[in-house]
Write a structure and sequence with these properties.
Chains A, B: It comes from Rhynchospora tenuis. Two copies of one chain form a homodimer. By secondary structure, chain A is an alpha+beta fold. Chain A folds into two domains: 69 residues, no CATH class; 190 residues, 2-Layer Sandwich (D-amino Acid Aminotransferase, Chain A, domain 1). Chain A has twelve helices and eleven strands. The first copy, chain A, has a five-stranded antiparallel sheet. Chain A has a four-stranded antiparallel sheet with strand order 1-2-4-3. A two-stranded antiparallel sheet of chain A has the order 8-11. In chain A, β3 and β4 form a beta hairpin. Chains A and B meet through α4, α8 and α9 of A and α4, α8 and α9 of B.
């Protein structure tokens, strides 16, 4: 039984007259390949190439990318007579009950070398109006489930996020009280910290990006999710309509933005106020020493400039 | 006795009608502060701030930046009646006899947030015509001393360097035969490799850039020099007329470009052909294992994507 994903925070939504993704409730996520838009074909080309390129380490593919199962012809909701091919991807939120989700578009620019003049102007404007050039990333959407329900800022609100708003959002995302002025970051240590937490995952991804020269991920997003019901926190890359060949050059645009995000996440973990009033004492013990918390991978990166 | 630096490969040169740096042969490098150009005042402001900010680690300041000794009023060559204030900096090539020098402008863009429209157009054009947006850096100048003399490509040639030319230049820079089609990279292991080599220095600098949120270095250069006469290879940051305050954000533009350069330098060191025909056997032993060669600092970064 196909349905619209309930927890989508960015991108096109399936609805009357607009195409959007569908899920089948059994772990599949179907993304329509609009024949009038070359982006779908480009994303399919990326998945095909990415999943057949043996130079991509298996651990990177399976940990940080959606699974890919080819394409499938499906009816379009509200227009059941219209059949369209869809990408068959893994549903990243399968099994989650009340997921907290964030979509972060990585890179100091989203336009790419071969972009048309018209598209360039569009991307340039969107970038300039966002934190993209300043921060090297922008938040495209988020939702947080807390005790009294779901908190999901409106897209138009998120679109206007300043640097300060983004910093605040990264704290709200792991808080029991996301909609209050002073979010408590109660889940910071369990979601961002620890050897399997978001920070450790971002560091592993960073390590791959320091070496990989196969792909340049323009306008791709980092999708971050966790579930207070117990599902482990995960970071995945999504949206590959503008991936270009790397041609022997690292993706410094993505890597720089990723490092910027890593710095801010690590700052939340090392915030002395948060370490002092932990949600659970064991987690606090782990985060008190961020080096131990994130394992041996480049601990130096986590320490701010000190004398 | 003030004179023009003999081994300048980029930037303004002192001459009839143009201002440029001078050296005194005793270790001082004097950079004119042109009162009609605000860049001088901005660079002075940076040095003053940088050298008084205790959050900058001493080891970073002393290893990767020129020393700073305030300002001094000096006569302008060819116009001895004209007196101008100069920045007093350490002469990075003091004591070198036949230095090999490279100036690499780091970053995927050289324009900065507050740039005027006119300057933006100028920087944008220069960037677009160079490898800056593609590679995250461009070579601004280089010279190599080899047995039969000095090889120094013309500025206009360097300005037109393609991605392929830049890759080649990084090999020519450490070769006995820089002007031949197939540079031998005879000095790769001794200059780029080893625990005190350029790669290890770049990795230490990278580590600082992953954490520092004090300064954003737009349009700054990495100055790399070594001397076949025995002076150790050094990497220094120079040119700070467009350094901006970091305001809590890392310099992802500089960091991304630095990682891109690191990748290419490490590729030369791990090139199986070069490891097989080494200049000196001990160095070859070191470079055969780039992890051992660069010490404990983030060895993962050096290994390309492998299964």
């Amino acid at each position: 039984m196909l349905q619209r994903p309930e927890h989508q925070v960015a991108g096109h939504e399936a609805g009357s007259g607009t195409l959007g993704p569908l899920i089948d409730g059994s772990g599949n996520f179907f993304k329509p390949l609009n024949p009038s838009d070359e982006r779908g074909a480009q994303e399919l080309a990326f998945y095909t190439s990415f999943y057949s390129d043996m130079r991509v380490p298996h651990s990177i593919r399976s940990s940080y990318f959606p699974s890919f199962g080819g394409t499938r012809i499906l009816p379009v909701p509200d227009s059941p007579d219209l059949l369209l091919p869809h990408l068959v991807l893994g549903d990243l939120l399968h099994g989650y009950s009340d997921p907290c989700v964030m979509d972060i578009k990585i890179g100091a620019r989203t336009w790419y070398p071969s972009v048309s003049e018209k598209d360039f102007a569009k991307y340039w404007k969107k970038d300039s109006e966002s934190t993209t050039p300043l921060l090297g990333f922008r938040i495209s959407g988020l939702q947080v489930h807390h005790e009294s329900g779901r908190w999901k800022p409106h897209r138009d609100t998120v679109r206007k996020y300043t640097v300060t708003d983004v910093r605040q959002s990264l704290r709200q995302f792991v808080s029991k009280n996301p909609d209050e002025t002073d979010p408590d970051c109660a889940f910071a240590s369990s979601v961002y910290g620890g050897s399997n937490g978001i920070l450790a995952q971002l560091l592993e991804l960073k390590s791959w990006f320091e070496g990989q020269t196969l792909f340049h991920f323009y306008s791709s997003s980092l999708f971050i999710a966790y579930d207070k019901g117990g599902k482990a926190a995960q970071a995945k890359l999504i949206d590959f309509a503008h991936v270009m060949e790397g041609e022997g050059i690292i993706d410094h645009n993505f890597l720089g933005g990723l490092c910027s995000l890593i710095k801010w996440v690590s700052e939340i973990l090392t915030d002395p106020e948060l370490v002092a009033v932990p949600d659970d004492p064991e987690a606090a013990e782990r985060t008190a020493d961020p080096i131990a918390a994130t394992g041996p991978a480049e601990p130096q990166a986590m320490v701010g400039p000190t004398e």
